[in-house]
Amino acid sequence: LKWVETTDFFTAPASTRFHGACESGLVMHSLNVYKVLVSRFDGAPEVTPDNLAICGLLHDLCKANFYKPGFRNVKDEETGQWNKVPSYSIQDAFPYGHGEKSVYLIERTMRLKNAEAMAIRWHMGGFDDAVRGGSFAISEAWRSYPLGVMLHIADLEATYLLERGTSAVNR
User: What is the pLDDT of residues 94-103, one digit of tens each?
Assistant: First the structure.
């Protein structure tokens, strides 16, 4: 927590234009993922309340100090005038990948259990660059560590259902 407080984790957006593209969107998203994990999977075999908290709250730690607020020009279709609107851009000072970067940052200050590390590493599912590149490692990770599937499901539900319409820059 001490390290997290040195970042913009509590004020950062969760994305550039879609879910949680607003101030504090990242912490909102993290809390939503945690709430979905608890509501769906608390008491599941091989899963502890600590696993759910660590994975839900820290899976996107890679997005701390990742987005830069700014503006972009958008044309008003009715008037034809250009207006400046808030936006976010990616400014990744440590391009290490998504899930793997979160694991790396967490491991700098606390030790993850194997199931937690695998869940966070592979929580992007088919959106992960390695998977899109043809890697099949996710299949073995999810087969061996069901917490990964649980985190992916919770992330999807939070992103696409709970956080619809939470973008301040894509309305």
Answer: 999 999 999 9
User: The whole model's pTM is what?
Assistant: 0.91
CA distance 14 to 60: 8
What H or E segment, with its residue span, contains residue 72? Answer: strand 67-75
Residue 106 in tokens:
């967490």
**Sign of CA pseudo-dihedral 126, 157, 3, 168:** positive
Per-residue pLDDT reduced to its tens digit, 150-170: 999 999 999 999 999 888 776
Q: Which two tokens stand for residue 98?
A: 């998504």
C-alpha pair distances (Å), 140 with each of 32, 133, 148: 27, 16, 11
Measured CA to CA, the distance from residue 52 to residue 25 in angstroms comes to: 20
Q: Are 88 and 71 in contact (CB under 8 A)?
A: no
Name which of 50, 60, 49 is nearest 163 in CA terms.
Answer: 60
